Amino acid sequence: MSLNSLGDEKFDFDELADLYQAHGAINPPSELHGLWCGKISGCARLTDAQVISIALEHMGVDFLQDKESESLLLEIFQRLEKKLVATDMSFKPLLPDDEFALSERVEALSQWVRGFLEGIALQVGSQLMELGDEVREILQDLVEVSQLDAEVDDDDAGESEFIEVLEHVRMSVLSLFYTFLDGNAATDSLPPTIH
Fold first, then answer.
1. Can you give the C-alpha Rg of the chain in angstroms?
2. How many CB atoms lie within 10 A of CB 67?
3. pTM (2 decimals)?
4. Domains in the chain, start-ordered, CATH in brackets?
5. I want to staple 29 with a disulfide (CB 3.0 to 4.6 A). Which of 16, 107, 157, 178 is the partner?
6. For 37-60, how does the pLDDT look when each residue is reduced to its tens digit (9 = 90+)?
């Protein structure tokens, strides 16, 4: 089934989680989405082969079981690129939906942020420390989110707090994306992935 026909990020997560489970992946799926997002935010222009290579390494496998798995990974990555540059600021981290326990969603958000921090650090390197106080503050906030305790009360207050943290992460990522994009030699928007 094509993600383009689904139109709902929840299915992205469910299908990616299924793919990870089918391949016996050693890392969580949200972390891969964060890793890709961190690399894109650091102005990486990834080919399809690089996208798949990053996924294979992250899953801890040598190859994908079928062509559909490759297509799914590429569709999720392409959707991520489109959401990051969308003028409606519709980007969201790829996480389980609210049918999952709050503790599982908090854990997935922490994993997503760890992936993001790894991706942007790999892409940008020491340039991160050369940026202003605002960027360092955003990164420090994200480090704190990456270390959240997943043991939270699954009640209205816990849900509200999670939504606030998620929105803070979302806006922090967009801020970093545009900071690096603005500083990247005369590009006005992210060029399409090379296929």
1. 16
2. 8
3. 0.88
4. 3-182 (1.20.120.740)
5. 16
6. 999 999 999 999 999 999 999 999
